User: Fold this.
Amino acid sequence: MEEKKYNAADDIYSKILRAGRRTYFFDVRSTKAGDYYLTISESKKFTNEDGSFYFKKHKIYLYKEDFEGFTDLLNEMTKYILDEKGLEVISEIHQKDFKKEEYVESDLTEDKVEKEVEKEVEKENFTDVDFDDI
Assistant:
């Protein structure tokens, strides 16, 4: 597996939105020329049959010259969906334990967040056995 080269100077400002099994990363980064652009990343957690898990990632790079058109279409589409279907989530596959979380300001990278999630899952899968009970 190729090791990801990370340059902290490229990351300028970051926010994280956790939404059930999905985590969204909004990162302002710097180009070589010193200009800024936005990356929006989705990381979604999946579980294998053996109980192990993995993440699928998708990323969008958004440059300043596209902000206005992107924002206009995003606003139009979200308004259309809310006008047509309202705020209630009606999907059968939607997680029952879904909790809307607020934006989280963080200096964590995607890899660091995934490692933290892995630690939490390991804790959840851990069975505490008291040998006095046996």
User: Anything to note?
Assistant: The chain has a mean pLDDT of 76. The chain is about 25% helix and 30% strand. The domain at 8-64+93-125 is CATH 3.10.450.700 (Nuclear Transport Factor 2; Chain: A,).
